[in-house]
Amino acid sequence: MGNLVSPVEALGFIDSIDSKKHLLLAYSEPSFAKKLEYRFINNGLLNGESCIVLTHDKTKFIEEEMREHGIDVEKYEENDLLHVYQIEDPTMHRESILDGFKELVKIILSDSKPPYRVVGRIMYDVKTEGGISIACHFENLFHSSIFRNFDGSVLCTYDLSDIQENDRWQQWLTQLTSHHDAAIIQKRDGKSTITFQS
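Given the sequence above, the corresponding structure tokens read:
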């Protein structure tokens, strides 16, 4: 599927991102994912980019993790370069799922100026068939239309154990990969692959 790489090479790939990219990170080990996510964010902060972290958890937990990974959270929040958002489930929007998605994107970008660097994902539930289906739909919509006018890079994060709760998880992972410019997929054995879409 892709080239087998070491964790150090995966970090090197993250360090090489200097232009507009829509990336997928599917991981088995949360500690591995956090290293890549916060390296991606830190690189953007060092470049003066507006960095946005999306979470379904409390923002203070994410901010503490960033500090543990060497990010000066207070400095970058004070300089208006770092924003951490606890986001709502777009499927619960009063009008429609699509309206929920569009509203979240608008809210997320309202406090920042391009170029952007975004980490996270909008859909919380990817364990169910319905949830992963909606997530794939959002990724396709973003990649095929919205991303064209988006000034920045996005690292979409998925825990493989969540995706693997679906019987058709390999098909869903293939579909997710196809909706991104490149994918880092870390298997249970700790080995990672990097795949590029043409």
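The chain has one domain: 3-196. Try to locate this feature in the token string yourself.
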